[in-house]
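Researcher: I'd like a structural prediction for the single chain below. Treat it as a standalone chain; there are no partners to consider.
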Amino acid sequence: MVMKTNNRRCLFLFSLILFFILEGCSVKKKIISDVPEKNIEVSEIIKNVRNSELKYKNLRNRIKVEFNNGRSVQTVNLNLRALEKEVLWLSASMIVPIAKVLMSNEKFVFYEKFQKTYINQDISQITAIPGFNRPVDVLQRILYGQSIMNLNKSDWKRIENPNHYVLQSTKGLQTTLFFNPKTFNLDQQRIFIPFLSSLITLEYNNYKVVEERVVPNNLLISYIRGNQIIKINLEYSQFDFPENLTFPMEIPANYKIKTLDEILK
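Model: Treating it as a single chain, here is the predicted structure.
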């Protein structure tokens, strides 16, 4: 029961941030081919993937998020700021500002203007799940085209595929990764959640170069459970990588404090 509650908390946190209101490694050999090479070992694939991953200190961009649950479609615009692996800051608007999130690996702070409520909790109270002790890193990976699991700290086997280098985890979270054979960018990852009998797919489209860094133009997230399909489309724009970045967060006066437990009831 405790494990299920913790899993619900993590999923809620993931949903809250995405839905909203609604080791770099050196590479000895660079593989370049329009189709996967059959004799390339998993370790060599991982080296090339790590070399192609987005690296930054500070990042700032805008995201148009479209949430579609099959019955209705809602849109929210996000301004995002990130300190790599450490901080994620989001400001949401629907014509006017409606919410803010400030998340570190120690703290989660959120407020919304509709009900005038806020959350201010230790991350340990929200994501008490093995492997999710650095949730900011996980969310940044999801957002910007990297595997939800650390490639160097997980065990992988290669699955033959005519169009992609496909790696599948052999332990832990059931994850399958599809890498472009020419660029080694992540085109898709699939995450199976056994206790929910559900599948999450993340599809990254139209990568582009901004300030000598490769970033995705679009991310389509699909959550599939039985006949239920929820889709979240993220369109990215206005990337930049400033030397310095601030993460302002001040809870407005007279807002009512909430916990995730209260919201999940």
